[in-house]
Amino acid sequence: MIAPGHRIEGHTSEVRLVLQAPTLRELYGQAAAALAEVMCVGSRPASGTQPHEVQIEARDAAALLVDWLDELIFQVEQTGLVYPAPEIRSASAQRLNASMTGEEPIEWKTPVKAATFHDLRVEEDGDGYRAVVVVDV
Fold first, then answer.
1. Most buried of 2, 7, 86, 119 (most Cβ within 10 A)?
2. Which helix (H) or strand (E) holds 30?
3. Mean pLDDT of the chain
4. What is the pLDDT of residues 35-59, one digit of tens each?
5. Is residue 94 within 8 Å of residue 57, measured between CB atoms?
């Protein structure tokens, strides 16, 4: 089993997120953490914030990853909060169910416009899942 993790690679007007985790649930959680890391320097709990329930469906795990990141980006734009640690309640290659509680960014860093299908991949091997997704900044 591989340990959950992610790294961020700069790219011209884009940022490549390289993710890994033993399960799809943890992979989608790593995607949220990586996106928050790109967007801000640290965060803290926001007072009075209620959890937001999200259900997303897509044709496959890669498309679901893009839709998930786009949902997170939309929520950031709507609320001014980031979502680095959502509770992924269930996840498969076609469906994700999560509860998200926003956090206040300590300092904004990079605005993210959208996740893209450029160089997108989600692969499963004997140790878990690995993914690459590029976000437009």
1. 86
2. helix 24-39
3. 94
4. 999 999 999 988 888 899 999 999 9
5. yes
> Please, what are the domains in the chain?
5-136 (3.55.10.10)
Of residues 2 and 87, more confidently modeled: 87
Q: Which of 11-15, 25-29, 35-39 has the lowest mean pLDDT?
A: 11-15
User: Which tokens in the block code for residue 44?
Assistant: 């803290």
Residue 35 exposure: Cα atoms within 13 Å on the Cβ side: 32
Q: What are phi and psi of 102, to 5 degrees?
A: -70, 150
The residue type of 118 is H
> Can you say how many angstroms the Cα of residue 89 is from the centroid of all Cα atoms in its chain?
14
- What is the token pair recorded at 119? 């160089």
CA distance 125 to 2: 10
SS3 69: helix
Strand partners, 103: 45, 82
Least Cα distance to 21 among 127, 136, 103 occurs for: 127
Radius of gyration of the chain (CA): 14
- Alpha-carbon span 49 to 92, nearest angstrom: 28
Rounded Cα–Cα distance for residues 118 and 120 (Å): 5
DSSP β-bridge partners for residue 124: 129
